[in-house]
Amino acid sequence: MDGKINRRTFLKAAGAGIILTTSGLLTGCSGILKDLEVKNLRHLAAADCSTSRTLMWQTDSPLTAPEVEIRFKNSFETVLKVVPENSTFTDDGTENIQYTARIENLTPGESYEYRIVDGNSVTDFHELKTPRANGKFKAIIFPDSQSADYSVWGGVAKAAFEKNPDADFFCNMGDIVDNGEDRFQWQAWFGEISENISEMPFAPVCGNHETYDRNWQTRLPIAYLNYFAVPDNGSEKFSRHYYFFDFGAAHFAVLDSQWYEIEKYKPGIIDEQIRRLREDFSRSDKAWKIVLIHKDVLQYRINGRTDRKEGFSDAGVIFMPEFERLGADAVFTAHLHTYRNRGRLKNFTPNETGPLYILTGVSGDVRYPGLWEDHRLDKVIAPQPETDNYLTLEVDEHNLTAKCFLPDGSEIDSTTLTKQGIRETAETH
Length: 429
Hints:
Helix content is 17%, strand content 34%. By secondary structure, it is α+β, with helices and mostly antiparallel strands. The strands form 6 sheets. Strands 17, 18, 19, 22, 23, 24, 25 and 26 form an 8-stranded mixed beta sheet that branches. It has a 7-stranded mixed beta sheet with strand order 16-15-14-27-28-29-30. Strands 3, 6, 7, 11, 12 and 13 form a 6-stranded mixed beta sheet that branches. The chain is globular.
């Protein structure tokens, strides 16, 4: 049995009070359906987003027999049921009852709907799309969203989603919250984008603020690692700290730049990431290779101080040569809460054969007006005094375009890379 039934067969079965699942089992659906209350329902990128996805959510009390039910959008031809794992964890003195469902064997370029079921209790259906077969996609990239008032972050996010209804997934470049242990901040962050993250895949990046405890001392990013079941990186020591995934025509490496913060707890993440990055990029046959990493590759002078010189950060010194050797096309960074486009760099100088480097800016209410002096490698700087922004990333087999927008939709920068043979050219304005 191939797990597919036609509409007439399904409606007949449903009228009899049964559902035929892809496993061939009959499930009763008699009785009055009740609303199932779930929190922080989220949709995460998987290693291959064309065929897989990960769903996570919390509840106030344990569920009895939870399942995820999937069907083609606006159709009853196929129903797939997936049993989630219990991924409950405790942090900030609170037990978070949590479930994680890994969805496999989806069809590329298809539109699905899913809902969570527990006995006679169900949620509404939510959309689940897989990338187009031609490799084309659009992503929204949000810089640091850490905030004192997360309604500011919510305003930026809502504006970005409203102006880009064709976006396929979104990223947050780290410092998602201001304090990684503060569960109220996580609830506020989730709450502002609940309608979007339940239907659009999310690719998180770990930032240094995810490693802070309530006393502002460093620790392992416990909440981040538990809230986001990102693709398995095969590491016993640094599971979920960094990961890789495919989306359309692009292969993404999401790296962890918090080696100073976690060194005393778990040393060795730099060497392991370099080794895994080499192995991973050598295996990928995607048209584009893109890196997401929180801490920026440049070092800026600080206004009013003479002890800090312009140059390159440790992240830049360590990883930029690797990015060049491995053929990375674009590198997106964050951490400094300012938007700067550096163009393409190689051997620490402008070079049209190197990766494109973009510092993504800020999407929360923590801003550093006038803090950084301009760097000689900055090609485009956001209008000053700087406010919030977001980016879009549009990719197909031949073109990669990164654009930066203010929340009102004003475009402040655009760069396009175009594949020509084995090299690329860049156009920036």
